[in-house]
Write a structure and sequence with these properties.
alpha+beta; about 100 residues; about 20% helix; globular; about 25% strand
């Protein structure tokens, strides 16, 4: 997103809205195939999710997901979600990074 700052600030990377009550972005992307198009944003999202799945699960894993919510000032919240139950951990895990681009 840093290379595509105008699109991020234009809210084009957003997968959903941030819910203050739950602390979660309300929509995630879990399927690389669901990201269609050939814009820089589409290519960045596809590569990001492919990398995420390669490091957390596998390409066919439906529980490894990503979520993004930026505002027009460039404050972005990125969440990575996964189910850790297969590894003996708790299901429904997530980590979040908040940054300004």
């Amino acid at each position: 997103m840093r290379l595509d700052r105008a699109a991020a600030k234009g809210l084009l990377y957003n997968t959903g809205n941030f819910d203050n009550g739950t602390g979660r972005i309300d929509a995630q992307v879990c399927s690389v195939a669901a990201i269609v198009g050939n814009t820089l944003k589409d290519n960045n999202m596809r590569q990001w999710l492919t990398s995420l799945k390669a490091n957390i699960g596998n390409a066919a894993d439906t529980t490894s997901c990503g979520a993004i919510n930026c505002n027009a000032d460039g404050d972005c919240r990125v969440q990575i979600l996964w189910d850790d139950a297969k590894a003996g951990g708790l299901g429904n895990q997530f980590i979040e990074v908040v940054s300004r681009i």
